[in-house]
Amino acid sequence: MARVVVDVMLKPEILDPQGQAVANALPRLGVSDVASVRIGRRVEIEFEGEADLERAREIADKLLANPVIENFQVKVES
Amino acid sequence: MKVGVVTFPGSLDDRDAARAVRIAGGEAVRLWHADSDLHGVDAVVLPGGFSYGDYLRCGAIARFAPVMESIKKAASNGLPVLGICNGFQILCEAHLLPGALTRNQHLRFRNREQWVRVESSATAWTGDYQDGQEIYILIKNGEGCFVADEETLDMLEDNGQIVARYVHGNPNGSMRDIAAIRNEAGNVVGIMPHPEHAVEALTGPSLDGLGFFTSVLKHLSGGSEKE
């Protein structure tokens, strides 16, 4: 089995209200030196055989990420 | 005239949409997500709800349902399609409409009555309205914030593809107060508020939503072509 990790993040210009809500909660933990928080999604894909990065990219582009609002990166996890 | 209403796993408003079609004088045909046959319908409504539990992103999985393949093909040949709420999200995910719908800016589910201004009566679904007419219908969504890049927003404005805007307050942070858009041809419309819940005095805040359903019936019988 080979695992490919897909990281999906909102594009920088897209507002992330969840990240903002988390950032606004940090002072309550006594944390005051965080400038911003942005939240994304990590997806782990297990291939039956070899890790297929091309196929993973296709899956990410067609389903896991919405290219209108999100960017993604794929990497093989060793 | 036969108007199909699709049921996905997790659809909620399919019965209300079918009822609205009947009240408007059409025949409602229930379509099933796993059946690619459109059963000879003249138009299609994608109803509200939480298809596939809204997993991954709202509408992201419904887009791959067998019925959607047929709807995509038929829409490119002019089939009128109306996506309401989750249906709007599905149309964006299926690239039948530009942009995307994201989490409400205030992070809360918004469930209330809402004023909306119809900006374009030049669609298959809005011919019975006047441009600029304000209507009072329901909104109920957690992911109703329409976003697109500036270029796309300008294109929508320039082509008259913004079908409706929120007025007297934006309930979710939608860019340029967008509540509904259409494709270039005008046969595909996505709207976040719920016209199908405003068709009867007993249960709705007004009867203002009925126009979407009477419009498409007129459009199909060749009655109200406005360009």
TrEMBL record, chain A:
Enumerate the GO terms in the molecular function aspect: ATP binding; phosphoribosylformylglycinamidine synthase activity
Residues forming coiled coils: none
Q: Which GO terms describe its biological process?
A: 'de novo' IMP biosynthetic process
Q: Does the keyword Membrane apply?
A: no
**Which catalysed reactions does the entry list for this protein?**
N(2)-formyl-N(1)-(5-phospho-beta-D-ribosyl)glycinamide + L-glutamine + ATP + H2O = 2-formamido-N(1)-(5-O-phospho-beta-D-ribosyl)acetamidine + L-glutamate + ADP + phosphate + H(+)
Question: Where would you say this protein principally sits, based on its record?
Answer: cytoplasm
Keywords attached to this entry: ATP-binding, Cytoplasm, Ligase, Nucleotide-binding, Purine biosynthesis
State a GO cellular component annotated for this protein. cytoplasm
**InterPro entries assigned:** PurS, PurS-like_sf
Record-listed E.C. numbers: 6.3.5.3
Enzyme class per UniProt? ligase
State the HAMAP family in the record.
PurS (MF_01926)
Q: What does this protein do?
A: Part of the phosphoribosylformylglycinamidine synthase complex involved in the purines biosynthetic pathway. Catalyzes the ATP-dependent conversion of formylglycinamide ribonucleotide (FGAR) and glutamine to yield formylglycinamidine ribonucleotide (FGAM) and glutamate. The FGAM synthase complex is composed of three subunits. PurQ produces an ammonia molecule by converting glutamine to glutamate. PurL transfers the ammonia molecule to FGAR to form FGAM in an ATP-dependent manner.
| Quaternary assembly | Part of the FGAM synthase complex composed of 1 PurL, 1 PurQ and 2 PurS subunits.
- Identify this protein by name: Phosphoribosylformylglycinamidine synthase subunit PurS
From TrEMBL, chain B:
InterPro entries, A to Z: Class_I_gatase-like (IPR029062), PRibForGlyAmidine_synth_PurQ (IPR010075)
Superkingdom: Bacteria
Q: Which GO molecular function terms does the record list? A: ATP binding; glutaminase activity; phosphoribosylformylglycinamidine synthase activity
Keyword Nucleotide-binding tagged? yes
> Which Gene Ontology cellular component terms are annotated?
cytoplasm
Q: What keywords would UniProt list here?
A: ATP-binding, Cytoplasm, Glutamine amidotransferase, Hydrolase, Ligase, Nucleotide-binding, Purine biosynthesis
Question: EC number(s) on record?
Answer: 6.3.5.3, 3.5.1.2
State which pathway it belongs to: Purine metabolism; IMP biosynthesis via de novo pathway; 5-amino-1-(5-phospho-D-ribosyl)imidazole from N(2)-formyl-N(1)-(5-phospho-D-ribosyl)glycinamide: step 1/2
Q: Which Pfam families does the record cross-reference, listed alphabetically?
A: GATase_5
Subcellular localization is given as: Cytoplasm
Q: Which GO terms describe its biological process?
A: 'de novo' IMP biosynthetic process
Active site as annotated: 85 (nucleophile), 194, 196
The reactions it catalyses are: L-glutamine + H2O = L-glutamate + NH4(+); N(2)-formyl-N(1)-(5-phospho-beta-D-ribosyl)glycinamide + L-glutamine + ATP + H2O = 2-formamido-N(1)-(5-O-phospho-beta-D-ribosyl)acetamidine + L-glutamate + ADP + phosphate + H(+)
Under the subunit heading, UniProt states: Part of the FGAM synthase complex composed of 1 PurL, 1 PurQ and 2 PurS subunits.
Q: Name the HAMAP family for this protein.
A: PurQ
Q: Which PANTHER family match?
A: PHOSPHORIBOSYLFORMYLGLYCINAMIDINE SYNTHASE SUBUNIT PURQ
Summary of the function given for this chain in its UniProt record = Part of the phosphoribosylformylglycinamidine synthase complex involved in the purines biosynthetic pathway. Catalyzes the ATP-dependent conversion of formylglycinamide ribonucleotide (FGAR) and glutamine to yield formylglycinamidine ribonucleotide (FGAM) and glutamate. The FGAM synthase complex is composed of three subunits. PurQ produces an ammonia molecule by converting glutamine to glutamate. PurL transfers the ammonia molecule to FGAR to form FGAM in an ATP-dependent manner.
Q: What is the protein name given in its UniProt record?
A: Phosphoribosylformylglycinamidine synthase subunit PurQ
Q: Which organism encodes this protein?
A: Rhizocola hellebori
